[in-house]
Amino acid sequence: MTVIVHHLENSRSQRVLWLLEELGLPYEVKRYERNKATMLAPPELRRIHPLGKSPVIEHGGNVIAETGAIVEYLVELGDGRLGKPGHVEDALRWRQFLHYAEGSLMPPLFTKLVLSRVPLFGKTAQKKFQPMIDVHLDYVEAELAARAWFAGDEFTAADVMMSFPLEAAVARASATEGRPHVAAWLKKIHARPAYQAALAAGGPYAYA
């Protein structure tokens, strides 16, 4: 049964397309464009889910929102591939980074982005939130210095989840300066055939 992905341009939903490509699951893309003035999602998405956000997928009569929940659903649909590793410590890291991406790393990035667009708060946002972001990026750098991928020695869905906040961090700041392992990890994921195939399916992706 085909997974329908309601895909908003330049958004978190690019990760869903990437994971589907990695898992080799059949899917269909329904594209939505942002409002050019507000950069918000169009009202048409509210017909799919009350929050009117993306990503949202439809599959087997289910409508599923929230990237982390979608990732877990797709991993199960893919017979557990790219899911929780067998080793206990790797499994804990997998679960942690699956939720850390949106629960801890993304909030200061998003807050800084929103405030930087308000002339009155631009410099304040930079001064207040960049130190918080640097703490996270230094933590991520240390984790990637210790192992090839976020959960361990193998690529997993945790890496898919971590892609968007790290791409966003790099797009708006010199986040990889002094962080060679973050830079190397980004280069590795961007070179993956499934990542490239997802870009072709989703259309232009400017994560800045």
Element order: H for helix, E for strand? EHEEEHHHHHH
Fraction in helix: 40-55%
- Helical segment count: 7
Q: How does the major sheet shape up?
A: 4 strands, mixed
> What is the CA-CA span between the terminal residues?
34 Å
Could you give the order of strands across the largest sheet?
A: 2-1-3-4
Strand content: 5-15%
Keyword list:
7 helices; 4 strands; about 10% strand; about 210 residues; 4-stranded mixed β-sheet
Can you walk me through this structure?
It is a single chain. The protein has 208 residues and is an alpha+beta fold. The protein has seven helices and four strands; from the N terminus they run E-H-E-E-E-H-H-H-H-H-H. Strands 2-1-3-4 form a four-stranded mixed sheet, with helices on one face. Strand 3 (56-59) and strand 4 form a beta hairpin. The mean pLDDT is 91.
